[in-house]
Amino acid sequence: MKRYIIGVTGASGSVLSKRLLSFLSGLEAELHIIITDTGKKVFEYETGTLWDAFLISLRQNKAFVLVHDNNDMFAGVASGSFVTEAMMVVPCSMATAAKIATGAGGNLLCRAADVCLKEKTKLVLSPREAPLHAIHLKNLLTLSECGAVIIPPVPVFYAKSENYGDMIDGIVGRILKSAGIENELYTKWNNGKDI
Ligand SMILES: Cc1cc2nc3c(=O)[nH]c(=O)nc-3n(C[C@H](O)[C@H](O)[C@H](O)COP(=O)(O)O)c2cc1C
Question: Does some domain include residue 147?
Answer without folding.
Answer: yes
